């Protein structure tokens, strides 16, 4: 059995979970999330825990067993506590600001880039350079952070661009004056 898949998921007090037509719905203080259960996977709900089981031991079922359990556990955490991803903008003249449900980024291009935040996602900007994205859906949050980072990838010479706060950019040494062998 899958080591991850066989562990039961604890249901927090303020979270409600229901299964209807092969779809798991998790509701909590931060919103509600839905997930389609793959065929061959059974989800059983008790008052304080959820268990995920598979119907057979095929290779495909083993892989779906663990991932389904993890996705449901992430849904529980998301609707109760929420997830957070932090980005940092480095570079002269690069900045961000939040305008309602949109994020405006000045990244050195001729016009600012405006990103509409998906429903349930929130953005907060500190000191025009530190972006904090938060929301209940871990997958959507990660995708949004990756799309924002992709707009201006950090470059290795000056380190300017958008990076995750925990990311370390390996700096390269640039050319220096008179370094070329003069003969």
How are the SSEs ordered, and which strands pair?
Blueprint: E1 9-10, E2 16-20, E3 23-28, E4 31-36, E5 41-45, E6 49-54, H1 59-80, E7 83-90, E8 95-99, E9 102-106, E10 113-116, E11 122-126, E12 130-135, H2 138-150, E13 161-164
Antiparallel strand pairs: 1-6, 2-3, 3-4, 5-6, 7-12, 7-13, 8-9, 9-10, 11-12
Architecture overview:
This protein is an alpha+beta fold. It folds into two domains: 9-80, Ribosomal protein L6 (Outer Surface Protein A, domain 3, Alpha-Beta Complex); 83-164, Ribosomal protein L6 (Outer Surface Protein A, domain 3), CATH 3.90.930. Helix content is 19%, strand content 37%. The chain has two helices and 13 strands. The chain has helices at 59-80, 138-150, and strands spanning 9-10, 16-20, 23-28, 31-36, 41-45, 49-54, 83-90, 95-99, 102-106, 113-116, 122-126, 130-135, 161-164. It has a four-stranded antiparallel β-sheet with strand order 11-12-7-13, with helices on one face. Strands 1-6-5 form a three-stranded antiparallel β-sheet. The longest helix is centred in the middle third of the chain and has 22 residues, at 59-80.
Radius of gyration using CA atoms only:
22 Å
| Portion in strands | 35-45%
Instruction: Please tell me the overall pLDDT.
Output: 90
Q: Architecture of the largest domain in CATH?
A: Alpha-Beta Complex
Shape descriptor: elongated
Determine the number of helices (DSSP H or I, runs of at least 4 residues): 2
Give the helix proportion (percent range).
10-25%
Distance between the termini: 70 Å
Uncertain regions: pLDDT < 50 for 5+ in a row? none
**Tally of strands:** 13
Classified by CATH, the class of the largest domain is Alpha Beta
């Amino acid at each position: 059995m899958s080591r991850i898949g066989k562990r039961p998921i604890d249901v927090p007090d303020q979270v409600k979970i229901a299964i209807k037509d092969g779809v798991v719905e998790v509701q909590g203080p931060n919103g509600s999330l839905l997930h389609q259960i793959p065929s061959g996977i059974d989800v059983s709900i008790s008052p304080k825990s959820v268990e995920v089981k598979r119907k057979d031991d095929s290779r495909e079922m083993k892989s779906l067993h663990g991932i389904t359990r993890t996705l449901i556990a992430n849904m529980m955490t998301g609707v109760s506590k929420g997830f957070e991803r932090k980005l940092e903008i480095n570079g002269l003249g690069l900045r961000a600001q939040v305008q309602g449900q949109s994020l405006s980024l000045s990244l050195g291009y001729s016009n600012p880039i405006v990103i509409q935040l998906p429903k349930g996602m929130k953005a907060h900007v500190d000191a025009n350079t530190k972006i904090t994205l938060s929301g209940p859906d871990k997958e959507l949050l990660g995708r949004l952070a990756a799309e924002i980072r992709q707009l201006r990838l950090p470059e290795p010479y000056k380190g300017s661009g958008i990076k995750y706060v925990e990311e370390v950019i390996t700096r390269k040494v640039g050319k220096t004056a008179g370094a070329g062998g003069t003969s």
